[in-house]
């Protein structure tokens, strides 16, 4: 599913990038992907996805 239509960013791509790049919200992850939000409609959902991935990483690292 596409999260950002303007940049053609798929949910799986955003999740992968959120795991790879530390810190910041969706705009920061977009920048590290070489993108920038255009219309901004995606940012709320993208921020939620980034947060989910970071929480999953934290849980995985604390369980190990």
Automatic annotation (TrEMBL):
Pfam families named among the record's database cross-references: Fer2_BFD
Keyword terms of this UniProt record: 2Fe-2S, Electron transport, Iron, Iron-sulfur, Metal-binding, Transport
Name under which the protein is recorded: Bacterioferritin-associated ferredoxin
All residue ranges annotated as the BFD-like [2Fe-2S]-binding domain in the record: 2-52
Annotated GO MF terms: 2 iron, 2 sulfur cluster binding; metal ion binding
Organism lineage: Bacteria, Pseudomonadati, Pseudomonadota, Alphaproteobacteria, Sphingomonadales
Key word Transport present: yes
Family: Belongs to the Bfd family.
Keyword Nucleotide-binding assigned: no
